[in-house]
Amino acid sequence: MNAYHSIQTSGITWPAAARQTSRRAPQEGPRRFHPRPSGLLEEHEKQGGGSVPRESVLDVVRKHYLLPADDSVLSYLTHYPSTLQVLAEAAPRLKQYFGGAAIFRLKAPVDEAGIRTLYVVVVWPDEIGAVRRALDKFDDEWWLIHSRQTAEYVVFTYELV
C-alpha cells in the first residue's frame, strides 16, 4: 500500500517578484522580465534622428561583443529585437564596471526544455573575487534598473580564463 501521493509538492507558492533575479549561473532555469521602453532609441528620436534602423543598433552590438561563428545569437536577436537595445545600452556600463580591456562574448544555447537564453559572458583573466564584485556592482547599479527593457531571457555572467 502506498502511504503518500505519487505527486508531491512543497505547498509553497512563491510570488512572481521573488522568482526574478538579476544574475544566474548558466545551469539555472531562465526567468522572464516584462518589457519597458528603451532609452537608447527614444533619446535618438528626441535629438531629431527619427527612428533608428535595427541594423544600426546591431552594428553597435557587433562593435562591443564577440558573436559566435554560428547564427544562434543573430537568430535570437532577430526574434527578440528589444534585446538589441539592451545590449547596446549595457556595453558602456559593462566597460565601466569591468574595465575597457575586458572582452564580452554573447552565446545563445538552447536548454533541455528547448528554451534559448542569451548569455552575456565577461571573459575574465583575473581572480574570481574581482569579477564577482564587478558583476555584483553592475547588477545593483545598472542591470536591476534596466532589466525590464526586454521581455526575453538575458543573463550576465562570467567565464574565468
Q: What is this entry, summarized?
A:
This protein has 161 residues and is α+β, with helices and mostly antiparallel strands. It has 6 helices and 3 strands, in the order H-H-H-H-H-E-E-H-E. It is globular and about 35 Å long.
Would you mind describing this structure in some detail?
- By secondary structure, this protein is an alpha+beta fold.
- The protein has a domain at 65-161: Alpha-Beta Plaits, CATH 3.30.70.
- The protein has helices at residues 16-19, 39-49, 54-64, 72-79, 82-98, 128-146; strands at residues 103-107, 118-124, 154-160.
- Strands 1-2-3 form a three-stranded mixed β-sheet.
- The termini are far apart.
Please outline the major beta sheet.
Answer: 3 strands, mixed
Task: List SSEs in N-to-C order.
Answer: HHHHHEEHE
Strand content: 5-15%
Using only C-alpha atoms, the radius of gyration works out to 18 Å
Named at the architecture level, the CATH assignment of the domain at 65-161 is 2-Layer Sandwich
* CATH class membership of the domain at 65-161: Alpha Beta
List keywords for this structure.
161 residues, alpha+beta, Alpha-Beta Plaits, globular
Write the SSE topology:
Layout: H1 16-19, H2 39-49, H3 54-64, H4 72-79, H5 82-98, E1 103-107, E2 118-124, H6 128-146, E3 154-160
Parallel strand pairs: 2-3
Antiparallel strand pairs: 1-2
Helix pairs in contact: 3-5, 5-6
